[in-house]
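Changelog note: in this version the structure field was regenerated for every chain. One regenerated record is shown below for reference.
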Amino acid sequence: MKDAKTIRTSRNLPKRSWQNLALIAVPAAVLVGIETYHATTILPDLARSRAAVAHTLQVIDAARMLDEAIQDAQRGEQGFIITGRTG
């Protein structure tokens, strides 16, 4: 025959299991909710950042092309001054 302590422990086991499960599931659900909120609030900022980076790269490319054009003009001017010939 089972003693009183064994019977009491076996009855409390399902309740204790549910408590342990709740201690794992509730914080996990809260973390999932926080991450979902965080992700949905960051996505618009991320899109704006990507657009800003793309624009910055376009400006850098345009500045590089302008610099090359200025250097080409300077070389042509120097060549004209030295030789007196165009082209």
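Spot check on this record: Residues 4-83 form the longest helix (80 residues). The helical segments are 4-83.
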